[in-house]
Amino acid sequence: MTGITYLEAIREAQARALADDPRVFIYGQDVGDFGGAFKATKNLAKEFPGRVLDSPISEDAMMGLAVGAAIEGLRPIIEMQFADFSTVGFNQIVNQAATLHWRTRVSCPIVVRLPSGGTSGSGPFHSQSMEALYATYPGLVVMTPATVEDAYSMLVEAVAIDDPVIFCEHKYLYYHLKADSLPTEALPTGKARISRAGRDLTIVAYSAMVHEALAVAEELAPEGWEIEVVDLRSVKPLDTDTIMGSVARTGRLLAVGEAWPWGGVTAEVVARVASEGFNLLDAPPQRLNAKDTPIPYHPNLWTVHRPTARSIANAARKLLQT
Amino acid sequence: MQVSSDLLCQSFKTMLLARILDEKFASLYRAGKIHGGVFLGRGQEALSVAVGGQLRKGDAFAPLIRDQAGRLAFGETVIDAARTYMGSALGPMRGRDGNVHRGRPKSGYLPMISHLGSTIAVVNGVLFAKRMKGETGVAGAAVVGDGATSTGAFHEALNQAAVEHLPLVLVVANNQFAYSTPTNRQFACESISAKAAGYGVQAHRVAGNDLLRCLEVCGRAIELARAGGGPQLIEADLLRLCGHGEHDDAGYITPEQKNSPLGRDCLKVGEQQLLDGHHAAAADLAAWREAAVREVDEVIARVQREPAPDAYQEDWCALASRHLQETHSHPED
């Protein structure tokens, strides 16, 4: 096998963090000798004895322990086995970790890794995208890497950040993305990337949806449309300047997210552009999200539940003709 | 464990100071000079001081709302408490948080949040990190009430401490009511301490208004944890001699309960123990009280003159990494 996958990049970033900084440790369900449910910590327990530890099935206590360890100056990485299960630790994340620095001036450097998003057959409780839920709380940084390079460099940076970071890594991308090598340079957190330049329409996306958007840009190119794709990289902070700059060039905005439609990242993007860049728009800004139901199990239902290249292309064509 | 005369006297003095400080907060509350609620430790000072006062520098302490005595014994100053209640910009919470939500995390004094049971795992984390850093001979105590034992956080954290064999002392002040809910609506087992066996944790039970016994039992539990004996669970039976907060008249506490041994005031019990054991004379007690009243009055007078937080000086930044703070939400700036 040549190249490195998104999942391997996450493992490598953790290996580097453990090697570079003795304050780092990993705590989560099955992360020890077993190497994690997805093998994101494969062999790390062996390579870093005593620093990669299995936890009981106790998301609340896992996060509480991380807060205490952070107060003591360590830098815990918490693996939630699935993003969906982080709701059990939600209180500790949003009320304990996220408020600590503001209340006491003591920083709380924790990375919470959330294996996020849908894969076919995973159903309602192993498929969720929770970035908007965490982004709504002050005191958290929320990362949503879409590429192998970003998965690596953003996770390395997340460990170095003095605040709790919610790291949403996409499970579909784990095995479907490959890079030739690990990056040596990276954009700073909070900076979005223009993944593809265009002049007719801006599609703002993040995580797995970036690739669906890029496929749409490719598909519509022979029709003469030049679509610009903005990869947010982190949803909090949200790079409003890059979004606004892109909309200034294209005059049209489609915000795409895999999460549910009520509120959330796409609504935030549209709200900001509508309030600050209304005069830049040649057509009403649009959003495309998952359907407002739990995430279905069967592939026939699942592929229609979330945005796909097909549904994004339909929305894009409609918007381009407005 | 033998309680020294010095420890007994020191503990009583701290209880007295806590009671007088609490009463001052209550009177400021009635005068409308405190912005939020006021929550007293009346009736729970003996237990509280026995925990906070027998921890050392380098240990961790996560008190709850009725632990003024334990906080002072662990090293909190009267002025830190007063500044937080009064919302002074000079206090440890700078008006960002108030009343019992205060601490100094870098000194091991952990600030509570209102979600009961959730600071237990934070103490676990402090102890876990200390072990990872090679610090030995430390202990950490978390205090909760009977109500918090019903939370998932309590269960998860106690189990976690047992699995990791951490030097955690989990103190349950069973004051018979969670706000107004009696213990028979809270749990169905015979006692809270009976739960310890299910976690593989050693249990202790003590009359929570008996100063001498609290010092003995809490001191022993802390030393067992410190010596590597794993987590210790203490259940202290007592009665809260006030409302949940000063807004609550506690009409649900029955006269029978108030007149039972549970309803004895630990301050009176402690006073008698000092006199009976010839550890102090009545004149000493009067002098201690007078000194405590004077200290509290001086501190409150000073804090009342201190500046309140200024919304226009506030930086409205929730992150330590200032460059990552969203600025978009303040278009008026």
Can you give a write-up of this model?
The complex is a heterodimer of chains A (322) and B (333). Chain A is α/β, with parallel strands linked by helices and 322 residues long. Chain A folds into 2 domains: 4-179, Thiamin diphosphate (ThDP)-binding fold, Pyr/PP domains (Rossmann fold), CATH 3.40.50.970; 193-320, Rossmann fold (3-Layer(aba) Sandwich), CATH 3.40.50.920. Chain A has helices spanning 6-20, 44-47, 59-71, 90-104, 131-135, 148-160, 171-176, 209-220, 240-250, 264-276, 299-305, 309-320; strands at 4-5, 24-28, 52-54, 75-79, 111-116, 141-143, 165-170, 178-179, 193-196, 201-205, 227-231, 234-236, 253-256, 286-288. Chain A has a 7-stranded mixed sheet with strand order 3-2-4-5-7-6-12, sandwiched between helices. Chain A has a 5-stranded mixed sheet with strand order 9-11-10-13-14, sandwiched between helices. A two-stranded antiparallel sheet of chain A has the order 1-8. In chain A, helix 10 links the parallel strand 13 and strand 14. The longest helix of chain A has 15 residues, at 6-20. Chain A is globular and about 60 Å long. Chain A starts with a strand and ends with a helix. With 333 residues, chain B is of the alpha/beta class. Chain B has one domain (5-309): Thiamin diphosphate (ThDP)-binding fold, Pyr/PP domains (Rossmann fold), CATH 3.40.50. Chain B is 41% helix and 10% strand. Chain B is built from 11 helices and 7 strands. A 5-stranded parallel sheet of chain B has the order 1-2-3-7-6, with helices on both faces. Chain B has a two-stranded antiparallel sheet with strand order 4-5. The longest helix of chain B is centred in the first third of the chain and has 26 residues, at 5-30. Chain B is globular, with a radius of gyration of 20 Å. The mean pLDDT of chain B is 96.
The termini of chain A sit apart by: 46 Å
How does the overall form of chain B come out from the CA principal axes? globular
Instruction: Decide which structural class fits the backbone of chain A.
Output: alpha/beta
What spatial order of strands do you see in the largest sheet of chain B?
Answer: 1-2-3-7-6
